[in-house]
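Quiz preparation item.
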């Protein structure tokens, strides 16, 4: 999702990345707090020593609700694993919730055996904890309500047009601990998840994975969902409304068949059907360009939400009001769906590498436009993305980052559009075959993915660089040093006389940048090596154009002038 390309005005977002000291097991249990703590409002970043070696083998999440009072009742069972016994273990849970009971390996713990002062629920029994350990947490409370979802995370208690409850979750920026106990780190993904969601009739609960069963209990229904693969923690999502359902079976270019499902509100049925009809072409595009749909054993799921959208694994949130752009498709649904490959199948192992989610996901929009309509549509979308680059921070810092650090202290919106342009430039440098082979290998961990021969992977920028260097059969470290690890764009210096024109690259910190350069002279294109300065003989009457096919992301004053004009216009408007 395009989350915080601009700095948010709401004060609560400013504390997400604040440093906090880890609580100790001697802290006294406190009453639920009205505001979520800075520890809760960050996701990723510094790892608690109690969680560093913990993995989540299975999560069983049970939910019920008091919609009138906006209370969530949760009962979570986690199977935790670690290589050696530990004196303490912790999971993350917002202090807004009242913890009713905690159980460890079937034994109910005394209140003195656990604390949750800052949002890190610390389990510290008298005996050493052996693994695998079964941790159960029973809790309830009013979860954080977002001010502006999905840019601001939490649980939305909305109403449909007929007054029915409409609940949705979106927690990418703040993490899973806003509504269920989890390890709020990329490595905290459960290997298997079951969800039991109880709602009053006629409400429908749509969430991740495969619908196993619906149990009728008087005026209530319990929906039982189950995942069949590792699931992104912030991608676990609740969606509750009087949904109607569109479904069909889809056969992919790989020959496997899987279900497509769209849960939508009853109104605007014709628009819902039109949106649903876009899915087959989108799936085919991704499978041709990248590889097999990653979660074919579960479903392709879309659900209508009261917020704009989010890449919730196998149940992508959609709230774009059925708006198509000039490409003839709903760009937001396509962007969120791209995250099934870039974010869910491939997950960054540290939020510092978030461009692997958002840069690749953003590049899929111009690429899809090219797939549908050709080069003109491709460059129209690329140029629209190019206008907003800031270039104030490197895309990758090679530091441990929380997600909010990336937005508030790092590249922010550049991980989207600049990331997409880096990929466009890399594609032109490598050629299509080597480029797409590299992307496929990054996403699946192998160059030959087929249904059933891969599983979700964790990766970082260096993993991608290693794959690119292998497939390009040359060392392209210089490319990534300039585009990812430096903030400023390379600048093309042009010096022209009546008899010659000389080209040279200028980079931040004078880094090497032997980027080949196409030059058009009176319409004839030549390629300059650019290992050093390159000079071409011309006359004063010749028309010379550098990079005529717009292959290279570089500093251009025209974009800076446009940004300045737009900023001045916005200032004048605000003063009127």
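Solution:
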């Amino acid at each position: 999702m395009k989350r915080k390309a601009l700095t948010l005005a709401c004060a609560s977002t400013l504390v997400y990345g604040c440093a906090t000291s880890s609580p100790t097991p001697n802290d006294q249990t406190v009453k639920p707090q009205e505001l979520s703590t800075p520890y809760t409002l960050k996701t990723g970043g510094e790892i608690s020593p109690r969680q560093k070696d913990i993995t989540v083998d299975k999560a069983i999440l049970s939910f019920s609700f008091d919609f009138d009072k906006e209370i969530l009742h949760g009962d979570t069972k986690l199977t935790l694993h670690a290589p050696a016994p530990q004196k303490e273990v912790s999971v993350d849970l917002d202090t807004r919730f009242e913890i009713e009971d905690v159980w460890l390996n079937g034994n109910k713990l005394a209140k003195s055996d656990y604390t949750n002062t800052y949002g890190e629920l610390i389990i510290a029994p008298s005996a050493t904890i052996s693994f695998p350990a079964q941790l159960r947490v029973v809790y309830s409370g009013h979860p954080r309500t977002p001010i502006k979802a999905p840019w601001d995370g939490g649980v939305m208690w909305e109403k449909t047009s007929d007054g029915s409850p409409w609940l949705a979750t979106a927690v990418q920026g703040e993490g899973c601990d806003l509504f269920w106990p989890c390890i709020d780190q990329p490595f905290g993904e459960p290997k298997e998840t079951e969800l039991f969601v109880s709602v009053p009739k006629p409400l429908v609960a749509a969430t991740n994975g495969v619908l196993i069963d619906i149990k009728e209990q008087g005026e209530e229904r319990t929906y039982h969902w189950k995942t069949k693969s590792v699931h992104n923690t912030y991608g676990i999502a609740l969606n509750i409304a009087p949904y109607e359902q569109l479904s069909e079976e889809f056969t992919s270019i790989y020959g496997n068949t899987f279900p497509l499902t769209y849960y939508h509100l009853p109104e605007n049925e014709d628009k819902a059907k039109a949106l649903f009809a876009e899915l087959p072409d989108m799936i085919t595009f991704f499978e041709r360009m990248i590889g097999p749909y990653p979660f074919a054993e579960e479903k392709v799921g879309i659900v209508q939400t009261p917020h704009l959208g989010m890449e919730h694994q196998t149940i992508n949130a959609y709230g774009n009001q059925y708006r198509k752009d000039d490409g003839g498709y709903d760009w937001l649904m396509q962007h969120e769906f791209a995250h099934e490959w870039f974010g869910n199948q491939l997950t960054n192992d540290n939020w510092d590498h978030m461009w692997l989610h958002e840069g690749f996901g953003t590049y899929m929009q111009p690429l899809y436009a090219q797939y549908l309509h050709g080069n003109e549509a491709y460059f129209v979308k690329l140029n629209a993305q190019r206008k907003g680059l800031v270039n104030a921070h490197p895309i990758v810092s090679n530091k441990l980052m929380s997600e909010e650090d990336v937005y508030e202290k790092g590249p922010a919106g550049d991980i989207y559009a600049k990331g997409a342009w880096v990929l466009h430039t890399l594609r032109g440098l490598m050629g299509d075959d080597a480029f797409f082979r590299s992307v496929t290998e990054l996403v699946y961990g192998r160059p030959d993915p087929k249904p059933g021969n891969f599983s979700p992977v964790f990766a970082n920028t260096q993993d991608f660089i290693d794959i690119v260097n292998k497939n390009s059969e040359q060392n392209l470290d210089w490319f990534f040093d300039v585009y990812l690890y430096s903030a400023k764009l390379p600048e093309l210096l042009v010096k022209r006389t009546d008899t010659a024109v000389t080209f040279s690259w200028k980079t931040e910190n004078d880094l090497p940048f032997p980027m080949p350069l196409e030059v058009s002279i009176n319409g004839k294109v030549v390629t300059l090596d650019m290992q050093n300065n390159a000079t071409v003989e011309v006359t004063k009457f010749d028309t010379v154009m550098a990079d005529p096919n717009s292959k290279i992301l570089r500093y251009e004053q025209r974009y800076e002038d446009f940004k300045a004009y737009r900023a001045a216009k916005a200032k004048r408007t605000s003063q009127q």
